[in-house]
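Risk register update: the risk of archive-format incompatibility is retired. Evidence:
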Amino acid sequence: MSSKKFNFNKWWIYLILVAIFCVPAYTQIPFDRTNTSKVVAEVLRNPLIYYNQYIYIIVKVVFIALACVSIIFKKFNKVFNYFIFIQLIGIAIFQSTAYTESYGLSFLIGNIILFLIVAAAWLMQSINNYENEYKNKIGNIKYLLLALAILAFWCPADNTGMLPNFTLLELVANESMVTFCMVTPVILVISLLYSEKINFQSLRIISFIGLMFGVVNEITCFMLSVDMWWMGILHLPLLIVSLFTFIVSGKELKKISSENK
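Archived output:
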């Protein structure tokens, strides 16, 4: 199916995504809008997705198993893509929702909408795609992308998020694969380097949303809460991979557009 049929690569779409990013949170107990950052921090400290730590292990094991199988046996690509779609839906609902002490049941509405858009974009890639010729010409930068993806998957941080923790237990049992900021660079790298089929319009939308969250997290960790510097390091894969994918997908879409004329 031609990528021309679904042309989401329009400047105004990115303005809409930025506007959604700014949609305020909704809380059971009303709050002063000047305290929005406190609401966001409290929700992200203890979202519903953190309530059962066995989920971390299950999702990581299933993710890596399906990723390996789909890379070796190409016919399983769609199974892996559908798993990621379900994973992203879960992240959208449960990472941005929490029972907080100060504000009661709270929802980060902007995050929820954006993560659902990411899930929809990923589903579109599974349904409307074309041959991934880019993976054969990416060059040595693929090793940097792989290193960043591994760092995001491992997410080696202690319980406070302030210090490194490179233990194997942390590799298996932390929450990286149930959080948007760590999942996104991993799936973007897998898609660029290993997927047989790809949709650069989907990847451009996903990477733009990832880029927004990457920039905000780096500003937060390196400028506003410098004690969280290590978490800033761990968000570099999100920032760098999203920026790289956004640029590459833009170039590939221009190429495809010129070929279809």
